[in-house]
Amino acid sequence: MSDSLVIIPTYNEKENIEKIIRKVFSLTQPFHILIVDDGSPDGTADIVKSLQEEYSGHLFIQERSGKQGLGTAYIFGFKWALQRAYEYIFEMDADFSHNPKDLIHLREACVNGADVAVGSRYVKGVNVVNWPMGRVLMSYFASMYVRFITRISIQDATAGFKCYRKIVLQTIPLNKIKFVGYAFQIEMKFTAIKYGFNVVEVPIIFTDRTEGTSKMSTKIFREAFLGVIQMKVNSWFRNYKK
To answer: Under CATH, which number does the domain 4-235 receive?
Structure first.
């Protein structure tokens, strides 16, 4: 039994899913994987299910009907993980933009005192590969904007490669997490900090996907931009007690 679960939300990731699963299971640290698939029409779920016999007891899949959003997929996965008493619970993309080897570094950070470990593109310069300059600047200045509005010190506020200790997800009222796009990543960090948890950044190199299609859209970006202000205002009326 592993104490570590990697949650990977998927929608049309047939080009990447088998490779990412095999890479995670090749690591020296034993991890379990939960795939949360939102009804991928390209057969992503079928590929995962074909691997379950090979990785029996280590690879799990939960299928949902239709595309319901990144945030709801992770909340679904968090609740699934808490029911099974995993101590370290990870968020990771399926497209190799997050290097599976860094799972070990994120876990080590939590073992050594962090409550949330964030795989950070910006804590040591700008470590992004294969992104056009416009997207690098958008992401970098988005994090600056989040820091300005929220007054948190996280350099990579929109990062989606993270490890949580179980206690964090048990404490945060997951049903009250509002955002479903990339603003979800900001809201989870902000909420963890407001509850007094120790959130640390671990430097990673982020490599843009080479296969499959990005899920970023102007709607997702707009939710994040406007949602940060709303989130900050709402925090003035919330009681953050563990």
So the answer is: 3.90.550.10
Q: For 85-115, how does the pLDDT look when each residue is reduced to its tens digit (9 = 90+)?
A: 899 999 999 999 999 999 999 999 999 999 9
Q: What angle do CA 230, 125, 183 make, to 5 degrees?
A: 20
Is residue 162 within 8 Å of residue 240, measured between CB atoms? no
What is the C-alpha to C-alpha distance for residues 3 and 227, in angstroms, rounded to an integer? 34
Question: Considering only CA atoms, which of 226, 221, 235 is closest in space to residue 152?
Answer: 235
| Residue 151 region by backbone torsions, left for phi larger than 0, else alpha for psi between -120 and 50, else beta | left
Q: Judge contact between 118 and 201, C-beta under 8 A.
A: yes
- Amino acid at residue number 123: V
Q: Which residues have a Cβ under 8 Å from the Cβ of 22 and sit 6 or more positions away?
A: none
